[in-house]
Amino acid sequence: MRFTSAPVAAVLLANSDMAGAFSVRPPVTVSNQLQVSSVAQQRLSPLKFAEVSGGMEELQELTEDKTANAFEKTVRKSPSFWKLAGYASIPVSAALGFGLVPSRRLAAHAAGAIVTGVAGAIGKSRLDLITETAATPAIAQAIIDHGVEDPATTAGYIREIQTKFGIVDDEEFEAMCADVYSKYLLGLVKFNPVAKTSEPKELENLKTALGLSNLMVGEAHGAAAAEWYRTTCLFTPEEDLDDPDHPDRQAMDKFIFLTERVLNRGGETPEAFKFEMTRVAKAMNLSLMEAVDRVTDVNEPFYQRALKSTRAKLGTNQVSQSTLEKARQSLGISEETAFDMHVACFNEEVRDLLGLQASDEEEAAEINTYTAKFSEGAKERLDQLKDILGLSDEDADYEISAEATPLYQATALASINEVLTGSSSPDVAWEKIETRRKELLIPESKSKDLISSMVMQALGVPLEEANKFAKVNNEAAVYDNLLETLEAKQTLIAILKKSGWDEFDNFDKNFCDPWDRQSANGFMRSEERIKVYKIFLTRTVRKSADGNLTDEMYDKVMQIKGLLGISDEQAEIEARAAFGPEVQKACLRATTEIVADYTPELAKNMKKDIDDAMQKYRLSDDFLREQGASYYAKAVSQISAKSPAGIPTKEMNQALHALQEMFKIGKEDTYAAHMEFFGPVYKKSIVEAMGSTGVIREELKGSLADLRDRLGVREEDTKELFLEAIEEKFVPMVEWINSEMERTMLNQKQLSERRGRDMGEDMFQSGKIADGVLGLGAEVNIMGDIINLVDFYAENEIAEEKEIGTKEVEGEDVPVLETSYPITAIGSGALDQEMAEYLYRQFVVGAFTAQGGQAGRYEAARASFGGILGLTSEKMEEINSTIGSSVYDNYVSRTMATKGALDQQDMMFLANIQGKLGLSSEQSEKLLMQSQKKVLSEEINALMDDPTPEGMKAFREKCNVMGMDLAEDVGISSTRIVRMFESEIIPGLKSGEINVGTSEILTEIQESLNLDPEECEAMFEGVLLRLAKQAMDLISAELLRGREENTVDLIKELVGYAAFVDGDLGLNVDEAQAYQVFNIYEAFDFSGEDPAQVEANKELLQTALGISQ
Hints:
The protein is an all-alpha fold. The protein has 48 helices and four strands.
């Protein structure tokens, strides 16, 4: 409850000024607190509009609510009194006098009962409700009395109402204000469905006066929208709300417009704006996009009137960009919409200045497009409007051109037609066209495009006629229309020359581009243009007197070619199709006559016939070369057939040379025909030159070169023929070697499986099964056959040197060459990869085992043989390395077993092996290291099975002499190195050979094993402590058994160990036993020893045993 109530009715009734409030008659005077002096009323007069605001009318109805009872009206007039009365209960008799129905919370025992202490008073909650009900009309009355023109002042009066009515809950009071705002909004829509530009500001001021937040304004609009749509739909059907001219539809659009303006001007976030607009739209059964469109339908007419006013006020300095910007902001016009409306406004001004605006079709028909033009000062007026509207020069020029272009084209086209019909001259026509351009404010740059389009149009008319006749094969009409087109072209060129524009120099390129749809011939398909051109070409020749194309005719054909956009290639094709047969006849006759019986005079006459035909039909030399090539090939075929042994005579070659000149064929174009017909002859000659040896002798190479020239074949082509012939000899040689290799490698069964047929025992020369050894022990020696194959390859100079790069030698770049093998055993199919590798391995092994001068020959042929087989350099190196590894392993193991290490003589022998196997220095060194490592690894494995100090020392010294690091080169693990260290020092420590005086032995071992000094020291200390403990354990055991004589050597060991660490051996000895051990040591015979050393040893022992000195 907002009021504290107590039964103080008697006190209130005692106030005679307030007693009148309970009179049944309405009070005569209004409460002093709400009275406003006439001066104040004048000062705070409501906002004056051209007509009364619909919102004010709605609020007036609210304040004049006839449904309020007398008591509610009294509360409105005396809020101060009822504020005090809120603290007491009101007598029921007084309430009944006003017809006030008691709250249901009050208990009445019987109707008309006498007022009692319980039921005789009106509850305070009921009074609160009436007070609040009275506050809403009071707020409305304040708005009526003080208006919204000064919202700050009105807001103060409204806040007084909250205080006077005792409404302490701000949220409830804001809800009352929102209710007033909602009714005001409904009034704006209800009393006038047409929106006004002042109404958004009116609502904004109302919002401020009522102190409403954006949230409450949104709630008010949502509630009002739902209420309006509900009540409207009671009487207005949906179809009427879809009619833009219906008042209720206009009211709906106005409501949405006011909502959008209020929300936008209220600074709502985009999300909040979307939410509130969607809610209002949904209340009216619309989508958000439909609501936005409705807003546009309302605000655009307002801005349209502003633009119209702007045009009317041009030159008065009463309008500017800022004026329009304010209007846009007030109406909510977007930049995109504003731009479109500005362009439309500018366009209307252009049409007005040109006199093109017409209210009906009759006025439009009376407009003379030939005389319409801009008056003086129009340019300045348009520039001013352009600046106010914020349009760019490009936009303004476009609108001017859009309206002026048809007028300009009409004049220009009429002037051009006058020249075409002969009624005017090019000079006069151009003068009219240029004058018209200036009248219409068209820039010269744009006029070029316009003139171009009209030129294309003027040419397009006769071309279209020609195309129409071509479709029905009316050649005469096509020819006549094309001639008419040529005349039009010359006339247009004469006009264009007056313009002085360089762009029009190339007429065909600018106006007759077939790929431009807007060009003169752009409407014609490719096949249509070709057909029209073909008709004109054949018709021109047919109309000539002797069938020849004169220069004048040829010029016309070329002009038609340009007009139709025919390419040079296509024109050549048509000319060949039309006149090619005539030239072909001449070429065939020349070929036949010259091959049959050649004479220089005949060749001269035939050439003249061909040249005359070419000139007559204006055909290109390319056509003659293309046709002549086929006839020349035919001539070569005929001469090859009639040549003795397939080799042409001197006269035959002269005939072929004459045909080359006649057909204008280059030497390069003849090689294909000569290779086809004379190539087999040259190949046969190569095979014959090789003879039984397969090698072409030097004296025959010159003859083959002469034959090549005589046959007219190219050197590169004969190289291919040469290789083909070589391959015919090469393949059988490889197959023989392969066959012999298989017999040395495979037994009878393996050979049968490989060859796919049964192989008898007689296949083997010895009559026994092959042993399968890698050729080293074979009875059949294939090394000679391999050398023969290498010699065959070398003496015929088959291998080629190719440059694969460069390298720097003594500051200069020299080429890096690589030998390539055009014919290989693998490439020719004579061998597979596996057998090629076997053959190469066999040859390398054979070369290695060979002795004397033959070994050098094998070694020199090794790389060539691998290339001839088709093996890569990488594969050959891999095989060489595999063989070398085996050889190195065997030699190094035998040598080191006998000598212990390799000497200078051994290294020289290995260098010889390196050369025989073709190994690089790096490969040789790697193989040597691998072999030595293998031998040393096997040696250390055997040594570690029964390690001895001497064996360890000898092994590590051997490794040191060979320069082999035990870990990195030999591959001994760190764990094994530790064992080697311990195996060598422990016997020495026990025997006393390694003592403090001989510590250099430890240093030598540490360095020899390549141990880290600190790591070695830690290892040694661990060994000492372990040995000391072992010695002490043995001493304890002997003492336990009463054998003191057996502890002598052990105690001496212990003293020796203690000397390395100053007695700190980490022993844990019982004191009694410690003294026992020490006493035994003191009883030793120390005669002959240095007394000082003896004393020092005793102190070390005491320290080791933990006995205080």
